[in-house]
Design a protein that fits this description.
2 copies of one chain form a homodimer. By secondary structure, chain A is an alpha/beta fold. The first copy, chain A, contains 11 helices and 12 strands. The structure holds a DNA duplex (16 and 16 nucleotides).
Chain lengths: 348, 348
DNA sequence: CTGAAAGCGCTAACAC
DNA sequence: GTGTTAGCGCTTTCAG
């Protein structure tokens, strides 16, 4: 009996004694309505608590004002900061967000994800899953045959694909320049898992910086971690053995750096005196590590915002999946936040 | 010209030489279709890459298999862990997620949020914003006149309202019992912002535990923080002055505890020898603080999962916003993770 | 300025 | 087994 359902445009029209068209005009702010008619309809809408159905609109307009967001690893701070940027930018632009989270970073069966999103008529997709292993193989495969624009985050720039992200290589160079300037000579590296593109970029920066300064980057000088503090601690143990001259470490993220600090503590090593340390990400806690951690700051929030803007731009330009994208590859720069863990020089 | 659009059921029907109805039967796995007809249609669907429109389905079935999720503070780990639980449970149950994030915890203009969600015909709503200040005043107000079930997270259980969350009071009691058992006598408290319900619960546990053990809980013995490490450090400074006998602190969350550790370090206080410390939340880093932090673990992920299950249960029971809810108030228990920061006794 | 008719993509209810 | 008709709630023609 339709007991408690939201009122429809028909009911409003009936109550106001007009046709549904006229109501439609009013709710869409169209000019061609007599002032008093408009007034009457507005009142009726108010009384009935009428709200147009975005669903019905999407269907007929072939435009949903909804963006699909695919993410992974939300329990970690990086992805959720990006999502945070996405939500606020989407809200501002008047878009709703349909969220999908992959169970694993390296999930490669992406077809059902796209189907879920497309069957709900999203106008565009933001792929906010970091590039890990083979999880980008399907990009550019015609098989997918996407009919809506898509922007990828945190992946290697590619032909005909819109991407946005932070320049991890640049960030790594910042970290390394700083350590070298501070007079550290034997700089080790603890990398993230190397199937991550971002981890490889950070490591490449380490290597390049050493080589350009006439140093070597041998295998005993670095260890691969898995982003966790525990892995950072382990890696540190191994580095202390394999690379005894080491006087500084550029660590792939702040959590692993925390593990290093713990080990250094236990060994009685002074940071920054005996060991310089630079992390990556600038998690809120890093300012309160003992000692406070120098780290590379990435504006993940901004990445999310930029991604939304790009996507909407592509939507508005009427891209249809036919012609190649005027492919933007947006790379944001990171900045270095210098704290105690890397400053040996008495500057004050 | 309809150049690059997803094929419709009509096109499939035409190509397969049947009516749309028959195609509908096939894609809905209905029995009444001749095997060879079904086969033919399936092939056509494959060839055309046809995908039914969830939008059109939602419209006619008055059921969208979509849940609205309202969150806030995604840049923090707590909310995003909950969201993580929500996504995985929703995925499992075959529901899509429409995500809204409030710009502030205490945003009180919730009407547009509900409108955005309801206009997209969500079947239910999960309000994953913690209860802060007056941000729950509108609950139970008939004005909202919700037509779909809604489950609230992290709020004080209330009549006729479905809620889910972790029992913060219980968690606080765990922390306090442990400290008392470890022989700490003068236990201070650093609370979260007291307009947060969760902060008040944790503090109430501190107070009750002291009183039940015959101690006082005077104003000099606690300070209000704002969840940040910086505020924790400040609060610790003040406590050391106002409550010099203090030999332990129950801190409202792990980040603030980190601030306390920093200050204690600088003052040369030994943890746990001179000062016992228990935090709350069990953020991944806390195991690597120096010393490793004893803390109360909350399964935020599970909260998200439970919320989804509750919401779907309500949806399936055909709740329509008329009768009061068979109001479930689900309270999960937390557990204590004992690490070095609170263990004075030599047990090994 | 306003309304009638058609239809977005799909399914419910009924016919045959 | 299969097709027809109607309609979900809205907007887009096009008439008046």
């Amino acid at each position: 009996m339709n007991v408690n359902r939201r009122p429809t445009i028909k009911q409003v029209a009936k109550a106001a004694g007009v046709s549904t068209q006229t109501v439609s005009r009013v709710i869409n702010d169209r000019p061609d309505v007599a002032p008093d008619t408009r007034e009457r309809i507005l009142t009726t809408i108010e009384q009935l608590g009428y709200q147009p159905s975005a669903l019905a609109r999407s269907l007929i307009q072939q435009r949903s004002y909804t963006l699909g967001v695919v993410t992974a690893g939300l329990q970690h701070i990086g992805p959720s900061r990006t999502l945070n940027g996405i939500t606020s930018a989407a809200e501002e632009a008047g878009y709703a967000l349909l969220l999908e989270e992959l169970p694993r970073y390296d999930a490669d069966d992406v077809v059902p994800i796209f189907q879920a999103l497309l069957s709900r008529h999203v106008d565009g997709i933001i792929w906010a899953v970091p590039e890990v292993g083979e999880n980008r193989n399907w990009v550019n495969q015609q098989a997918l045959d996407l009919t809506v624009p898509i922007v990828y985050l945190a992946m290697e720039p590619k032909e005909n694909v819109a991407t946005a992200g932070v320049d991890n290589y640049h960030g790594g160079r910042l970290a390394m320049s700083h350590l070298l300037e501070e007079g550290y000579h034997h700089i080790g590296h603890i990398s993230g898992p190397l199937d991550w593109w971002e981890a490889r970029q950070r490591m490449a920066a380490w290597k390049a910086a050493l080589q350009e300064s006439g140093r070597e980057a041998r295998d005993e000088q670095w260890v691969e971690g898995n982003w966790s503090s525990a892995s950072g601690a382990q890696a540190a143990e191994r580095l202390f053995e394999s690379y005894p001259e080491m006087d500084a470490i550029f660590v792939g993220n702040d959590q692993m750096a925390l593990g290093v600090i713990q080990v250094a503590c236990q060994k009685g090593l002074k940071i920054p005196g005996d060991l310089g340390l630079v992390g990556f990400d600038n998690i809120p806690e890093s300012a309160f590590f003992c000692p406070a951690l120098t780290t590379v700051q990435q504006d993940q929030h901004l990445v999310g915002k930029v991604a939304v803007e790009e996507t909407i731009k592509m939507i508005q330009s009427g891209w249809h999946g036919l012609e190649p994208v005027a492919s933007q590859s947006i790379m944001l720069k990171s900045t270095l936040v210098v704290r105690q863990s890397s400053v040996r020089s008495r500057k004050e």
